[in-house]
Amino acid sequence: MSTLKDILYRVSIDAVKGSTDVDINAIDFDSRKITENDVFVAIRGTLSNGHDFIEKAINQGAIAVVCDTFPEIIVTGITYVRVKDTNAALAFMADNYYDNPSRNLKLVGITGTNGKTTVASLLYQLFKKAGYKVGLISTVRILVDEVEYKATHTTPDTLTINRYLKAMNEVGVEFCFMEVSSHGIHQKRTEGLHFAGGVFTNLSHDHLDYHDTFAEYRDVKKAFFDHLDKSAFALSNVDDKNGLVMLQNSAAKKVTYALKSYADYKAQILENQLSGLLLKINDNEVWVRLIGTFNAYNLLAIYGTAVELGLESFEVLRLLSELESVSGRFQFIVSNQKITAVVDYAHTPDALENVLKTIADIRTKNEQLITVVGCGGDRDKTKRPLMAGIAAALSDKVIITSDNPRSEDPEAIIADMEKGIEPQFYKKTVSITDRKQAIKTACQLAEANDIILIAGKGHETYQEIQGVRYDFDDMQIVKEFLEQLNK
């Protein structure tokens, strides 16, 4: 049993009404989950304000309330704690409540626009192969050593993070790799956590529906590295123009990686084929099963992280050669008719361009490249025309379709995308609202040796339309249509 005073350690408190020397059961920011003797933390969210639910939380048994403004009605026997920032307070309280679990393992945060899931997931895979107990907190899944849980956000809320880290402590996990999103940093979900290291992959156009400007998006990412302490390492991709910016004010040990620039960890692509990459990493050659320049960067980040965490460099190279691609990240199948279908999560202009250029590097130009692409609803609208424009410029045929329309009209999203297609590319572009029909059409258009890229959803096994999630798996659907063609 914790006391309120114990879990308020390191929280910046403005004022208190009542006693903090009370036993508390649990903490929550969702008033619906509050039970007897819990602490309710009132968070100001994008859709609702927790301060509106203080009375409800007390009626359900809350013994204490943490808020940024005292309510008009103060209930006798309830402790009220006023703080400057309830998000930050919740993060420190969660850390204290779960006995500071991030300090009992080596936690590494991976941030950037693209590559977070691949880097985190492959680090998990590599350290498992090296014989360690490992944790993973990612967009795709959460792993407490070998026990899997479903992920709902790139960076979960701070209570969830600490709960899983505590579970990792209990089974002896030594290393945990965690995706850190700009939303997560901005909403203080990573405050209070002790990171052994941070990795910056790259920065490009994304989340401008949430962040007002690109500069704000960059600075939020940078804040993660600003908070690392001197016992940690900060590993940054300096081929990205923002790579050195991330390191500017960090107290952590600064290390760099690059394919083009001078860096501590350097790689060169010697061969790039559909079967894999031959890389030269710090003067040693290694063959890996992943393909494309973007994966060369991911693998270099993984190599640098593993070495910084104490693994022997030649052992890391051996383990790199055994890694297998992450679900929905350049996953491909080849049909009996020799049609190659690639499924990739690329949902930003930069990621889509990377995938299309990777395919361009390995194709012969004697085949067609048919791209199926859509953009999500209720998200950054400014990237829609950019993505369609990139697809049209770098493909032989393009089918614009739905992604996860969410609450938006899918045809309105497609209309936004169509604005980015230059007139000379009109003839090779078609719009089909139904994503399944779009994939079917791509398969019907394809001939022997052609390549189909299905971009945007990757590992997702659903399509969200008007608040309902329907079963939908790009890889499963393209397999079925290609098998029908085989018959």
From TrEMBL:
Name the GO terms of the biological process aspect: cell division; cell wall organization; peptidoglycan biosynthetic process; regulation of cell shape
For this UniProt entry, what's an example GO CC term?
Answer: cytoplasm
The EC number of this protein is 6.3.2.13
Where would one find the signal peptide in this protein?
none
Q: Which domain of life is it from?
A: Bacteria
Q: Where does UDP-N-acetyl-alpha-D-muramoyl-L-alanyl-D-glutamate bind?
A: S31, T154, T155, S181, Q187, R189
Briefly state the modifications made to the protein after translation: Carboxylation is probably crucial for Mg(2+) binding and, consequently, for the gamma-phosphate positioning of ATP.
Q: Which residues form the Mur ligase N-terminal catalytic domain?
A: 24-98
Task: Name its pathway.
Answer: Cell wall biogenesis; peptidoglycan biosynthesis
Looking at the record, the residues that make up the Mur ligase central domain are: 110-302
A GO molecular function term, named singly, is:
UDP-N-acetylmuramoylalanyl-D-glutamate-2,6-diaminopimelate ligase activity
Q: Which residue ranges traverse the bilayer? A: none
Per UniProt, where does ATP bind? G112, T113, N114, G115, K116, T117, T118
| Domain Mur ligase C-terminal, first and last residues per copy | 328-458
Show the SUPFAM superfamilies listed in the entry: MurD-like peptide ligases, catalytic domain, MurD-like peptide ligases, peptide-binding domain, MurE/MurF N-terminal domain
Location within or outside the cell? Cytoplasm
Q: Which Pfam families match?
A: Mur_ligase, Mur_ligase_C, Mur_ligase_M
Matching entries from PANTHER family are given as:
MUR LIGASE FAMILY MEMBER, UDP-N-ACETYLMURAMOYL-L-ALANYL-D-GLUTAMATE--2,6-DIAMINOPIMELATE LIGASE MURE HOMOLOG, CHLOROPLASTIC
- Function of this protein? Catalyzes the addition of meso-diaminopimelic acid to the nucleotide precursor UDP-N-acetylmuramoyl-L-alanyl-D-glutamate (UMAG) in the biosynthesis of bacterial cell-wall peptidoglycan.
Please state which protein family the record places this protein in: Belongs to the MurCDEF family. MurE subfamily.
Q: What is this protein called?
A: UDP-N-acetylmuramoyl-L-alanyl-D-glutamate--2,6-diaminopimelate ligase
Q: Which organism is it from?
A: Flavobacterium pallidum
The gene name reads murE
